[in-house]
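Milestone 3.1: sequence recovery, worked example.
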C-alpha cells in the first residue's frame, strides 16, 4: 500500500478535526485513493493540552521546521490562520517542494498572488477548498464541473457568526448587542468579533470567489465592506413588514468589463432560498450562462465540516501524486497567463433598490421635504411607512425604486442636515432580482 505522509501546522479546533477524520475514516480514504494517508507531524505552540483526539503514532513538535524539512512529508496542511507566520510557513513548504492545503482565506486574499507564483515555480499545488464555506464544495465545483460556464453573479452568506446574529434578531426580535454576547458565550463569535461583524471575513472570502468565477485579481482594499453593526431590531421588523429578511451578503457581479465587489447587509425577499438560510449555515449562489442559477448550502464552519474539506483536498493531491502528475488545475481555475486585473465598479455607480429609515420630528411638511430632496436627486419612492404617533420623534421608512448609490448618498446628506431629523439616516440595499 502506498503511503502519503502529512505535516499539520496548527492543532486548534480544525486541526483536531483533521486528526479525528483521518482516524475515523482511514480505511475509507484508502479505498478511495489507493493510499494510506498518514499524519506524521503536528506542529503547534501548545502540544500538551488534550484535544479529545488520539495522537498515538504522530510526532508532536513546537518547531515547524521539523515537518517543513522532513523529506518524507509530501503535503503540509496550514491551519493557524492569519497573515504571519502563516505566509512564511506556506512559502517555506513550497520552497521545499511540498504541496500545501490551507483553510486560510485571509492569507490567500492578501498574499495569494505571491503564494501561487511560488507554487507554480516549484511545480507544487496549493488547494484551499475549506477557505470558503467550510465543508461546502463550492470552489472545486467552480474549478471543476461548472468550469465551462461564464459566471455573471456570485452571492453568498459566508459568515456563520453574522448569519447567526441576524437570524436571532429576526426570529426573536432581539437587539444586536444582546445576540452578540450570546454568540460569544456559545462559541459562535470570537472574543474580538471585529473581523466577522464588520464584514472583513466575508470580504476575504469574496476575493477568492471573484478570482475563481471571473479569472481576475482582486485587491482586498478595493472591496466595499460594511458590517452588520448598524442593523437594528427596528430595521429587522420593517424588513419583515415589507416581505424581506436581512442578510450579510458577499456580492460579485460582472457588468461588462467591470466587476461589482461588495459586502454589506442586504434585504432579500422572504421567498428566496437565500432568505431561508438560518443560524450558522452558509450558502453561495452562482449564475452561469449555461447552468443557470445554482446554490450550495451547508455548514460553513466548525471542526468536522472544515476538516472534511481539508482532507478532501489532501485526497485530491494523493490521487494526483499516485498518477504521477500535479497541477492539473491552476489554483484559480484559469491558466496563470489568463488571470487579469478587471476594473471594479465604484460604489457610487451601483444601481439598487433601497430601504431608507429616518427618525424625524412629527411636524407638518416633513414628508414633503424628504420626498423633495429624494426627487431632486432622481430617486423615486416605491412605498412609504410612517409609524403611528407615539412620541414627538417618529420613524419614517421609504422603499425606493432602483437608484444610483451616489445619488442616494447625496440626498441623505442633504436630508440629514434638516433641523427636523433627529439622528443619522440608515439605508440597506435590496436584492430582489437574482435571475
Amino acid at each position: 500500500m502506498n503511503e502519503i505522509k502529512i505535516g499539520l501546522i496548527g492543532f486548534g479546533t480544525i486541526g483536531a478535526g483533521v486528526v479525528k477524520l483521518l482516524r475515523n475514516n482511514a480505511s475509507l480514504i484508502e479505498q478511495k485513493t489507493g493510499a494510506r494517508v498518514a499524519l506524521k507531524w503536528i506542529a503547534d505552540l501548545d502540544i500538551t493540552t488534550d484535544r479529545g483526539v488520539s495522537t498515538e503514532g504522530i510526532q508532536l513538535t513546537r518547531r515547524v521546521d521539523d515537518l517543513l524539512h522532513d523529506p518524507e512529508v509530501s503535503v503540509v496542511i496550514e491551519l493557524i490562520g492569519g497573515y504571519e507566520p502563516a505566509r512564511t510557513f506556506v512559502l517555506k513548504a513550497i520552497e521545499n517542494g511540498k504541496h500545501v492545503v490551507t483553510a486560510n482565506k485571509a492569507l490567500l486574499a492578501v498574499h495569494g498572488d505571491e503564494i501561487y507564483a511560488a507554487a507554480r515555480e516549484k511545480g507544487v499545488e496549493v488547494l484551499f477548498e475549506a477557505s470558503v464555506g467550510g465543508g461546502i464544495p463550492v470552489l472545486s465545483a467552480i474549478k471543476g464541473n461548472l468550469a465551462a460556464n461564464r459566471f455573471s453573479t456570485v452571492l453568498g452568506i459566508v459568515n456563520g457568526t453574522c448569519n447567526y446574529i441576524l437570524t436571532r434578531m429576526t426570529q426573536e426580535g432581539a437587539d444586536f448587542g444582546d445576540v452578540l454576547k450570546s454568540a460569544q458565550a456559545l462559541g459562535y463569535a470570537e472574543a474580538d468579533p471585529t473581523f466577522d461583524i464588520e464584514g472583513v471575513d466575508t470580504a476575504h472570502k469574496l476575493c477568492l470567489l471573484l478570482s475563481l468565477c471571473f479569472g481576475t485579481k482582486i485587491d482586498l482594499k478595493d472591496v466595499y465592506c460594511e458590517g452588520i453593526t448598524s442593523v437594528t431590531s427596528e430595521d429587522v421588523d420593517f424588513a419583515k413588514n415589507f416581505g424581506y429578511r436581512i442578510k450579510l451578503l458577499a456580492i460579485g457581479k460582472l457588468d461588462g468589463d467591470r466587476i461589482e465587489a461588495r459586502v454589506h447587509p442586504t434585504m432579500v425577499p422572504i421567498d428566496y432560498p437565500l432568505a431561508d438560510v438560518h443560524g450558522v449555515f452558509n450558502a453561495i449562489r452562482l449564475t452561469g450562462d449555461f447552468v443557470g442559477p445554482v446554490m450550495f448550502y451547508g455548514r460553513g464552519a466548525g471542526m468536522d465540516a472544515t476538516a472534511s474539506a481539508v482532507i478532501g483536498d489532501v485526497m485530491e493531491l494523493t490521487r494526483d501524486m499516485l498518477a504521477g502528475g500535479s497541477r492539473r488545475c491552476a489554483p484559480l481555475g484559469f491558466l496563470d497567463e489568463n488571470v487579469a486585473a478587471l476594473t471594479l465598479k465604484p460604489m457610487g455607480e451601483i444601481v439598487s433598490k433601497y430601504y431608507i429609515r429616518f427618525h424625524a420630528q412629527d411636524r407638518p411638511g416633513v414628508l414633503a421635504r424628504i420626498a423633495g430632496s429624494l426627487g431632486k436627486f432622481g430617486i423615486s419612492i416605491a412605498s412609504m411607512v410612517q409609524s403611528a404617533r407615539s412620541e414627538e420623534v417618529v420613524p419614517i421608512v421609504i422603499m425606493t425604486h432602483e437608484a444610483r448609490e451616489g445619488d442616494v448618498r447625496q440626498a441623505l446628506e442633504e436630508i440629514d442636515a434638516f433641523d427636523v431629523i433627529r439622528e443619522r439616516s440608515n439605508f440597506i440595499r435590496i436584492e430582489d432580482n437574482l435571475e
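The longest helix spans residues 303-322. The domain at 139-299 is CATH 3.30.360.10 (Dihydrodipicolinate Reductase; domain 2).
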